[in-house]
User: Fold these one by one.
Assistant:
Number 1:
Amino acid sequence: MEEVPDHLDHGLQIVFIGFNPSIRSGELGHHYANPRNNFWRILHQSGLTPRLYEASEDGELLKLGYGFTNIVARPTVGAEDITREEYAAGRELLRTKLALYRPEIACFVGKGVYTEFSRRTKAQWGFQQEAPVVDGVREFVAPSSSGLVRMPMQEIVDIYRRLYDFTHEGI
């Protein structure tokens, strides 16, 4: 199955980082394409996007200053299918991408994504207080957008809203 292409560029405000693409995303070639994934609804409800986008429009979000990548590129049924070797290689590749593109914020879509990348054992929701893995790139941890997440949708949206509030201060 094909990897879902990154959407990265210099000067981005936020890069959203997932574990890896779902099988559906791999089939369609777009990020967060599983219809049970709430990612696009969360972005809209939090104010980060002016309208509800479809997964097929993921590349359009570059115009809003948002990019997409994953710690592992290979599509799988679940994160439990990712190997230790894939995580190790993915950590290095992600560090390189963040150092090259230098987004203002790296938003990890799920605590597990952040802890795999940072090798830290704990994370809280929102901006991380520890020194970032890549100097100059602020780290934000948001809940996973998977439909399997048990957290109420409004709580998830409220956490993403912190990103909106931070990026729209003084506008």
Number 2:
Amino acid sequence: MTPTNKPAIDPNGIVTRPLPPDQISPKAVVLRLLQIKNVFRRNWKLLVILVAIGALIGYIYDLMHKSRITYTGSIMFNLGGGSSSGGFGELGQLAGAFGLSSGAPDANIFVGDNFLIYAQSRPVVEKTLMQHDTINNKDTLLVNYYIRHSGIRDKEWEENDSLRAFYFKRAKKPEEYTKMEQLAMADIYTRIKGEIAIKQPERKSSFMELSCFMEDELLTATFLSRHLKTIEEDYQRKQTKKTREMYDLLNERSDSLARILSGTENQLAQFMDQNQQVVVAQARIKENKLTRNSTFLTTLYYQALQQADNMRLSLIRETPLFTIIEPVSLPLFREVLNTKGLQIGTALSFILAIIVIFIRETYRSIMKEE
């Protein structure tokens, strides 16, 4: 059995009952506060010195690191206007001419949040950077302008002399990059990935907003406009891929029929020139055969031309339409990002001072007990 808390009698004859172990008396609270006061009185100089050292280190860090100025811009646009169902309805009508089934797959490969991920993907960003644009009345490769004005040379490439002097000599495809160009593009994309964002401002709206912040105003505005154009072109090309393949096939077929028809007509004209006065039945049969082939090929040729024309109209209907609702406009929002070395240094040094004082007081109490 556990012993019960028995009431105690003080020298004045007053009966006192001890508190349960899970309760604290006001007297204990006052005594604890007095102990903390005494601890602070003994160690206030140490606390002030450590906090001052941390604040000084943070202040020196702020002086050594310049403030970063960024420009933020955005473009609001609407994606719509493409109709894949109508185009593939006509694909089904033409499928019989090529031995295909009537059920064609849907060309819409971007659904839900896939478009948001796609718009920030590395292949699309690289296509944007590898384009020329007129900046300050000068034709400039965008990736080189980014290297010069984004701040990447002074931060990510500060200690790499090779990259600090690097630039792209011409626009290239990713498979044409050299080893140095691959390293440079990897660093550039890593930086840009943290600078751009695309979102849907309202869940019930079909509008999209492409935004970015960079250290140069013209760079921000140019990159936004060029990147949206790249997204539009690449997206349209992917959305209409199957229809364009069918359109190209129909053009090849009409060109082939035109060559065969031309050869047949030449043979017929040559035969008729050589046999104007001939009345032999065998010659007439050959002439009728060439005439029949020419007529049949003419019919197929005009049908192929009509189908290609219908497919071209279908391609136009399927092409998604990017409508800019709110273009990027100068001047952009300017923001100065200051370093917070002073605040961080003060906070960390204060925590360190508390730990040092705790260790010091613990050691002091141990030495007293001994």
Number 3:
Amino acid sequence: MKPKLIFLAFLFMALMNMKAQCNPTITSPRLGLKYPDKVLFCNTETEVLSTQAFGTYQWYKQEWTWQTPNNNPWTAIPGATSQTLTINGNDDQLYYFKVAVTQGDCTAESPAIMADGFAYALPAMISTMAPGTFEVVGAGELNVCTGASVKFDDAFPDLYGTHVWYRCIPSSPPPSPGDPCVINGVTGDSYVATESGEYGFYACTEYCPDQCEFLGTGNFVKVNFGSWEFCSLGTDEVKRKENSLKVYPNPTAQFLYIGKESDKMYKEISILDMSGKVVLQKKDHRFNEAIDVSRLVPGNYIILSKDSEGKSYKNKFIKK
């Protein structure tokens, strides 16, 4: 009899312990489709978050920030005390969500998830030219030496999928069959131009294929290829010139130096994460000034910079 009582006592304690354990998690149809802890909205549609069955519920939200740690407060959502919570892409993008639950004598919180979106960033284009092979003749216009090239890149390659590239300004986007401005067969996020024209693109977001954007005629770049006076520079001299900024140390855990002494000043430095979101920006940057990136989450980043002459550069660095 005594062993049986001991067994029942252990069983009762185990059952009580199981009852005391509550480990809520959040699920939803789009959670984890692109990133494991994010719901990505295409527009203003709704999404239903849910958790397991418990005794009571209280949902919370916290505003996103690029800073680490996130010091924005968690706030209880009024009336959000059921097993599910409906959020939408208009009001809830760039917020974190979690749920606190109780079950008997157990109280616990779920891991946080984020509501984000891939439709918020308008398209942008970066132009890259070899030093000594071009001159800026006006806003959005370049004279380029015959035999050289201009490389155009979508500034947010992770955001957009299929591209349509133009060599002249189209009459009306979206692209129409037979449009003479369309460069046929080119659908990637970059294009190398070797002929005169006005270049830009139309692209649809990769995650949201129905969400498409036109670069805008004001952001097209006009390129004039020819034997300009400045093209008399020898090929060897052009090759010796630096074709990109110095970015060091790379990788880095705290301080990052961007630029070269010959440029002195940069009008603007923008650091973007791999989804295209600007996480740090600085105006009037000097080449010998350190930029503190210690608050950035470890990973890969893109640096977009523009010097005092209007030349644009694109570089990458790794935050340790």
Number 4:
Amino acid sequence: MSAVRDRLPEGRYGRADSASTDRRLKLLGGVLGGALLLGVGIGGWWYLATNTVSGQVVTFEVLSDSAVRAHLEVHKDSGQTAVCTLRSQGADQSEVGRKDVTVAGPATTVDTTVTIRTTARGTTAELLRCKAADQH
């Protein structure tokens, strides 16, 4: 490549100071990387600060070709109402059932059993999300 540069007319295409260019690129990379980390940090903080409801499927049982029962445990603030969305998938990973469950009451931890009606035999019970009812 330097042989080609040597044959080009002097000053026609210019030459960048490679040390100066390297410093600028490193500075730009550092600034962009720092901005990305800041954005991810703010997003994570916002998610944790605003999401006061969490849950998990403790166990599930396939009842029949048209129903799956799930034992759901929800953690929330006292007196808060939460809405949790559960789904069941078939053996081919297609969704065969979905249900929104409202969880209310003074307790901060609520255990409940939910039956998800399915269009085909379900093989799973999965919690998609739990949110405060006013965020739903």
